[in-house]
Amino acid sequence: MNELRELLRETWSNRRRLLPVVIGLCFGTLGLSVLLAFGDGFDTAMNGALQRSGETMVRWFGGVTSRPFRGQPAGRGMALLPDDVALLRQVPGVLAASLETGINARVVSDDGTRSANPYIAAVGHEWLAIRRRTVEPGGRFLSPLDEVERRRVAVIGAELAQQLFRREDVVGRTLRVFDQPFTIVGVLGIETALMQSNGNDSGKLFVPFATAAPLRGLRNPQIVMARIDDAGRARERETQQRALLAGRLQCDPADRAALRVSNHALTARDIRGIVTGTRVFLLVIGVLGLLVAAVGVANMTVVLVEERVPEIGLRMAFGATPAQIRWRQLAETLAMVGIGGGSGLLLAALLLWGVNQVPLDPVAKGYLGDPLLSVTTSLVIAGLLGLCGGIAGWHPASRAAAVQPVEALRHD
Amino acid sequence: MTEPLLSLRSATKVHDRGGAPVHALAGVDLDVQRGDYVALTGPSGSGKSTLMNLIGCLDRPTAGHCRIAGTDTTALDPADLAALRRRIGFVFQSFHLLPGLTAVQNVALPLRYGNVAPAARERAATAMLERVGLGARLHHHPRELSGGQQQRVAIARALVTTPDLLLADEPTGNLDSRAGVEIRDLLEELWREGRTLVVVTHDEALAARAARIVRLLDGRIVRIDTGAGAGAAS
Fold it and tell me: What domain range is A371 assigned to?
């Protein structure tokens, strides 16, 4: 403890000269910490957003054939059918399947005071499981019975609920859709999700396809979709599904214009690659900043050792061994790095706490995440600082240990 | 006859000056018994400081032997030399006090390398400063002390480990005449207490107080005189 006190006292006695280096280290650490924290937050947020986007979803769209197939000409329109959902369920690795179609239509609140023109998504009951979204507590999503019995029920997006009902206890209330009363059974929460189509899901109204189809003459779905078991086998699962759908549609499975696909697992992989690349970039920038600070530490330590040659000689005259001189010098460097780096970490934690207090739009927050300095990141930074201190301090410390006392005492 | 505390045999030190060998010491033989007070004198370049560096284990002879308390220093590794240096107290002409430390901290410094507990270090340093008459200046920094007081702090620091041998290199060289007298008196007091002193000096008044005055010229001992201390010692 006394050794540490003396170490700190001697560091303090050199404070004027060490201050620029310590400030450099502090800001280098601050920069690295903040960059890594934002990277972590961004990564976590993107993972969540990808998950809520139906990360293991394969969506199929009917197209137009681009080539003849088994005597049939090119240019045929491929219409998906509600029965294709059952077909998809037969494919190995399909955990859930649904269909989706939609239109923009006028909806009116039950008291007739408010109306909107949202996108109305007519979907199957497994849509929620495929998109990995959540319904707010107190409500539910569409059920198989809703489809079988063609119930006039709806799940409303949270933003649309706010628009029509000022967001108060909407479950159980009714609204008019296609001039028919629909009972709201659930509210889809506001969540950040990637790869949404026809606007944000929180602004939509979801009704059973089986109910909406006869009301609006919607015979065929625009999309059929499946949730697969393993993102790592996304290409294989896509090929299996394509083969089955192409067989039913009597088109060439290799004709990508006939059956258009959006394989979210593959897209998610690309997005993850970009996120990882961004994090690595941030890490490299941060580490470079820290390295610049470490070079400053090394230079300052060399200068200090040069200036202290007489003192080192004196300590040796009093019985200090070369090893004691080396470790003491190294400890001083590490103390300098510890003070600079520790204050940088502390500043970063305060700064990030402040950033997290700023009220942000929930969707923006969903992409940005919560940039917090995790224990792991702090330990990694502490390890990097220790490494920098060790590397920066070892050479000057060895020079100090190699000082010959007789030369050192003659030095001044 | 007891073994001398310090024994030099054919001690030679040759420096290389741009390829030309310079003999700083040329085969010096010297014995110093426990309780002895030896002054090394001679003109500049005579080899006094080189001899003191060999005695203090701050340097090694190019040839010959240097034995301190029965240990031949020529064969020791740096760690063992450091251990041996803990048995020697050094006083330098320019005091070599660390400016950032107080008097008591400066005096306690050598005890750090002797694995002495911090509280014991401070007690010993305080007692030693009181011994040299600086009990009222314990927490003063060197810049707050006069030259004579700084040299007293340096002497206290040299004595705090209770060394076998006290080596002083021009201890009055940077002092005014009054402070010089004080230091001369103090060294003599220490010797009378039974300590072994080897002093390098140009100060004939200081040398005259020693039991033996070893005169060097061109790296050799040319004469050994008896000082005033010889009578006192006997």
Answer: 2-51+270-410
Question: How long a stretch of residues is chain A?
Answer: 412
Residues of chain A with pLDDT under 70: 1-2, 167, 192-196, 411-412
What is the CB-side half-sphere exposure of residue A381 using CA atoms within 13 A?
34
Confirm whether A56 is domain-assigned: no
Among the partner-chain residues B53, B85, B92, the one whose CB lies closest to the CB of A319 is B85
Residue A311: closest CA among chain B residues belongs to which residue?
Answer: B98
Q: Does A8 touch chain B (CB under 8 A)?
A: no
In this complex, which of A9, A317, A322 lies closest to B78 when CB atoms are compared?
A: A322
Looking at residue B142, its pLDDT comes to: 94
Residue A326: partners with Cβ closer than 8 Å, 6 or more residues away: A397, A398, A400, A401
- Taking CB atoms and an 8 Å limit, are A314 and B98 in contact across chains? yes
pLDDT at A44: 83
Global ipTM: 0.86
Measured distance CA(A48)–CA(A41) in Å, rounded: 11
Question: pLDDT tens digit string along B57-101?
Answer: 888 899 999 999 888 988 888 889 899 999 999 888 888 898 888
**3-class SS of residue B11:** strand
> Are A240 and A99 in a shared domain?
yes
Please list every residue in chain A whose beta carbon sits closer than 8 Å to the beta carbon of residue B100. Answer: 9-10, 13
Which among A321, A324, A405 has CB closest to B58? Answer: A405
Domain boundary among A222, A257, A292: A257
